[in-house]
User: Fold palmitoyl-protein hydrolase from Dissostichus eleginoides.
Amino acid sequence: MRGALSTVWFDRHKISRDCPEDRESMDDMCNSLGLIIQGEVNAGIPKHRIVIGGFSMGGAMALHLACRYHPDVAGVFALSSFLNKDSAAYQAVEERLGADLPLPELLQCHGTKDDLVLHQWGEDTSELLKKAGMATTFHSFPGLHHQLSTPEMELLRGWILKKIPPLTSS
Assistant:
């Protein structure tokens, strides 16, 4: 956006896997979102009961936040999202794997008819994260464009409930 005010999570040079990431704007947003996570932890919610996720750029932001800054969360999800080919998130996952440190599990969903964020970009992101050492699950939704669907939300709900089961009262 060349510095103009906008409602996106971070600056992008263009919607493409082949351009460099604007790491400064990503890091700034990760720091801001990290304060929210820390506020939840301070309020008594353990990180292993926090899931981070988002749609489109929000999913990419969630991947950066979970892979680079908060890998000790219960999981991360990315819907209709992608990472650039040289993303810092891939390197962060490789470094954590090499140091035998835990990584969050990824649930990724993508519509096969998405013409803004191509389905292949989502699939490639999942494969590159898996190759780097992350446990990933990728679900394709036939005919779905750059949007959410009820079946996708039901799948996500089930996954979240497995990652963070309801607390039982004692």
